[in-house]
Amino acid sequence: MDEKLTSKTEGKPIRCRAAVCRNPGEPLGFEEIIVAPPMPHEVRIRIICTSLCYSDITFWKMKDPPGIVPRILGHEAIGVVESVGDDVLEVTQGDTVVPTFLANCGECVDCRSKRTNLCSKFPFKVSPWMTRYENSRFSTLEGEVIYHFLSVSSFSEYTVVDIAQLTKIDSTIPPDRACLLSCGVSTGVGAAWRTANVEEGSTVAIFGLGSIGLAVAEGARLCGATRIIGVDVNPSKYEIGKKFGITEFVNAEECKNKSVSQVINEITGGGADYCFECVGMASLVEEAYASCRKGWGKTILLGVDKPGSKVSLASFDILHYGKTLRGSLFGGLKPKSDIPVLIKRYMDKELHLDDFVTHEMGFEDINKAFDLLIGGQCLRCVIWMDERVCHVTS
């Protein structure tokens, strides 16, 4: 970035534009805001581009806590370090970074363990504040507090993120591809790779072929799965899914007098080795569990259901069938070590990121991106903060 600009802004508040959610479900409004300097262990970054994830839609609609307004949404992004707070050693001005909603402090017993990616020093929560401090770095020109989202808030030209939630990456990767690894694609690929540890030659069933489900298919393909069965109510998802390794398709609305699990058990001769629930419906979790093979089948939950939803499984089945059910937050990935691996696999032309980007547009059109995603017309829409580098597609 421009060194003269950095020297002028370091340690000082920055005035910039942000797309602010003032009322749940209503179009975001562009406002001039103030972004405070970073506190110790924090980094202020200039967002290059951000992509829209369905979690943004979910919280944009939410009227009750943890929904809150005014708020700056957005959490899939890539940016450049503008300035750093005290005690930040990992990055410096001008570095390219990817923020993540999941912390990776590298110090706690969980971050040092290979068994989990869930940081215990900064456990995941949907907080309106910064990671270490119960306050915000955003305010209006009049001093009104604006809340954070997942401690990232990338729908702003500048934002402040804790160093535990930033991964330094090679600046040569195209930013409109790197930002996808900030959440959705990493979550799906990681669920197959890290959480399930899909084995070569195995059979996989994926419930829900949105971006996350397709990313699971991509991960399963990379792991060498032989059969990757997609389950959805939209038959057009099959053709899309073939790009990411889907080999077969089950239309959940055309199973006649059979359940989806009955169909999958029949066509696989006893169930899939791995099942992934990517929608966020308790009933679908139960169906996925019923679709995996007795003795060793694993069901991985990725979909986000509404608060308070419960899954009901018969204790007899749990005891006698020997299956596994587990959740996967951020695909089981440790951001600081695993995101660079995924970037290398993309640069080596192994990981297919390009097909996930169906639309690109300027910051001014962010509400159009919401409409496209809600209408099921896109996988990932990349929003460029600087329209001068925006290659608009549709």
Task: Describe what you observe in this structure.
It catalyses: a secondary alcohol + NAD(+) = a ketone + NADH + H(+); a primary alcohol + NAD(+) = an aldehyde + NADH + H(+). This is alcohol dehydrogenase. Its cofactor is Zn(2+). It is a single chain. With 394 residues, the protein is α/β, with parallel strands linked by helices. It contains 12 helices and 17 strands. The strands form 3 sheets. Strands 3, 4, 5, 8, 9, 16 and 17 form a 7-stranded mixed sheet that branches. A 6-stranded parallel sheet has the order 12-11-10-13-14-15, sandwiched between helices. The protein has a 4-stranded antiparallel sheet with strand order 1-2-6-7, with no helix packed on it. The radius of gyration is 21 Å and the shape is globular.
